[in-house]
Design brief:
By secondary structure, the chain is α+β, with helices and mostly antiparallel strands. It has helices at 58-64, 77-88, 136-139, 279-292, 311-317, 336-340, 359-367, 400-410, 419-425, 440-444, 464-472, and strands at residues 19-22, 42-45, 68-76, 101-102, 116-125, 131-134, 144-148, 154-163, 168-173, 194-199, 207-218, 233-236, 248-250, 256-264, 273-278, 302-304, 326-331, 347-351, 354-355, 374-381, 384-391, 412-416, 431-436, 452-456, 459-460, 478-483, 490-495. The protein is 18% helix and 31% strand. The radius of gyration is 26 Å and the shape is globular.
């Protein structure tokens, strides 16, 4: 079925407009738009007051373009062959042949047999001394990164830090007195607002397109890179194409309000919608990388109910569709929310007095906090409103449903080995594989039914619950160790790409 996108013309009422366009003018002092809060001098553009004053994109584009850079990467085949190819198309199994959502990577679509892969993207200068923000997927796995400025000068770049959960990365070039794009407040972005998208699409020179903000706090399920992805995209109809990843979404004041990250497309090229990471979220994530070397992420310790729950589950949780809020499906017993008194079935309506109506809105509010931060969480419990003071923790939290899903993904059934059988095998305990069906174990190993697991990674396991906990805390690649009842040999089975 072909889908058609309609172009909607927006009319503005009789309003006098004064535009302000930001430029960093002091070349003798280093300036960092993420770490510093001082106001940047504004160059005002005055308009003649008319019944319908025009929207001027020229000065916003002129001031913002010098701060957007072209990033080119090289990835050596031997180091990242399978991984890099997979990230080119993270939605191959999500929408069948339609493949609706695609991450865009520039020209990095070389065949699997090439000795190296080249790709390109965009970035935004955030400090006069060479710090640049871009997408994680632009530089992930790259062995060489180069940056070309708007004045055609090219520099080798170093990756300072990345955050897969938000698809952001910080790189650095050895340069001075660069033009910096000032940050706007993405919380102030509103529907229908005019915006510009600036980047280096399709290996072209810098390109500026205009559109409007068509939605906020969009969660499209595109980020599969991190263990706890955060998606609260600004959606726009400004034309964005492959190679624009990491480029700027700019308001008519020339301020950065988003980092372009994805497009919605049946073909891989622009077809109506583009998605940007809000500047406020970027400021927190990149600021953490600059100050601490890694992201300081606070966790609330709740599992949020998805929007597509069936009626039976809604009834079990007491979900009332007439209430705007985020319903809690589970709490981590040792998490911040549970310790503060928040329960399964509560509906979160505010974080620090900021209204949240969707899981993406809640997630981005928490993502801007760090461990140890004190926040207020307003919930509805039944018809009663309650306010809780919560101290965020540094761990993500573990939920019963997650543990069950982890075991299910292995494609096997398990039972705790009794003491008598353990003694016969000369071990202190273990978990026996009682049945193997479709799943990772069958697909990746030649493990047989009856195998007794004694260790996962370096951690001993003696019960099924311990196995669930240990598996849940593993990375994508780990090793299972154990014995068979009819053999004295120790066997090892490797599990790969477990959490992808």
């Amino acid at each position: 079925m072909k889908s058609k996108f309609k172009i909607v013309a927006l009319a503005f009422g009789a309003v006098a407009i004064v535009g302000g366009y930001a430029l960093y003018a002091n070349a003798n002092k280093n300036y960092n738009s993420v770490l510093q809060t001082e106001n940047v001098p504004l160059v005002k553009a005055s308009y003649t007051e008319t019944a319908t004053p025009p929207v001027d994109f020229e000065k916003a584009a002129t001031s913002a373009v010098p701060a957007v850079v072209h990033i080119k990467t090289t990835t050596r085949f031997k180091q990242t062959a399978g991984k890099h190819q997979q990230q080119q198309n993270p939605f191959g199994d999500m929408f069948g042949d339609n493949d609706m959502f695609k991450k865009f990577f520039g020209d990095g679509s070389g065949s699997f047999q090439q000795p190296e892969q080249k790709a390109s993207g965009s970035g935004v200068v955030i400090s006069t001394d060479g710090y640049i923000v871009t997408n994680n997927h632009v530089v992930d796995g790259a062995t060489d990164v180069s940056v070309t400025l708007n004045d055609r000068k090219t520099y080798k770049a170093k990756v300072i830090g990345t955050d897969a959960n938000t698809d952001l990365a910080l790189i650095k070039i050895d340069a001075k007195n660069l033009t910096v794009m000032p940050l706007g407040n993405s919380d102030d972005v509103h529907l229908g607002q005019w915006v510009l998208a600036i980047g280096y699409p399709l290996n072209l020179d810098v390109t500026v397109t205009q559109g409007i903000v068509s939605a906020k706090s969009r969660n499209i399920g595109i980020n599969r890179q991190g263990a706890a992805p955060v998606e609260a995209f600004i959606q726009t109809d400004a034309a964005v194409n492959p190679g624009s990843s990491g480029g700027a979404l700019v308001n008519t004041n020339g301020e950065l309000i988003g980092i372009n990250a994805a497009i919605a497309s049946p073909t891989g090229s622009y077809a109506g919608y583009a998605y940007s990471i809000p500047s406020n979220l970027m400021k927190k994530i990149i600021g953490d990388i600059m100050k601490f070397g890694s992201v300081q992420r606070g966790y609330l310790g709740i599992s949020m109910a998805p929007s597509n729950l069936d009626d039976a589950k809604k009834k079990e949780l007491g979900i009332n569709d007439e209430i705007d809020g985020v319903w809690i499906m589970e709490t981590d017993p040792t998490g911040a929310a549970a310790e503060a008194g928040i329960k399964k079935g509560d509906a979160v309506t505010k974080i620090n007095d900021v209204t949240v109506k969707s899981s993406s809105e809640l997630a981005v509010q928490i993502a801007t906090q760090k461990p140890g931060d004190k926040i207020t969480v307003t919930v509805l419990r039944g018809k009663e409103e309650k306010i809780f003071n919560v101290v965020l923790k540094s761990k993500m939290g573990t939920f019963a449903s997650q543990k069950a899903a982890v075991i299910e993904a292995l494609g096997a059934e398990f039972a705790t080995l009794n003491k008598e059988d353990a003694t016969k095998l000369g071990i202190t305990g273990g978990v026996q594989v009682t049945n193997i069906s479709d799943g990772i174990i069958r697909n990746q190993t030649n493990m047989r039914q009856g195998f007794v697991i004694t260790k996962v990674g370096d951690t001993p396991v003696k019960t099924v619950d311990e196995l669930k906990d240990v598996i849940n805390n593993q990375g994508s690649n780990f090793q299972i160790r154990g014995v068979y009842p009819d053999s004295k040999e120790v066997y090892y089975y490797g599990i790969n790409d477990f959490k992808k």
